[in-house]
Amino acid sequence: MAAPLREYFLDVVASDVFAYGSEHQDDAIDFLGAISAPAGRRRPDWIITNPPFKVAEAFALNALTIATEGVALLVRTSWLEGAGRYERLFAHHRPAMVAQFVERLPMHRGRWEPNGSTATSYLWVVWLTSDEIDGSATTEFVHIPPGRRKALTRPDDVPRFGAAPADAPLLMAGE
Question: How does DSSP classify residue 164?
């Protein structure tokens, strides 16, 4: 995710809880242990991530205290469900936008497989921190139309992102 963002934004810092050794990663940071910007850095304008499903709520809550402009999470559609998550997150932090992918996105740990298949649906949940401050958030729901992924895929994307990092750690269920 960081490499394409770097093509459009001046300053992108990529981090993960593990040091994968990827050319696209800058830091190994325990985001859930971070209560502010990493040492020596200013607070980020945006936090854009696809967090692990089990801790995505904690990621959202933490990111909303750190980012100065907004937070965007790529999550499973089912993440919007649940009374507990509503009470802890959505009742107090209303997203500015929910953008549902019409097509399924093949997501594979540590690599991109453009021809992969999946039964899982994904969406973006976006908060603007200015809405957090003044309480003005209203949620816009949009569909990301079919064909957008293919239209935005470039010929060099497969060699750039298609290989799995050799040292990517395997996680046990529940981690």
Answer: P
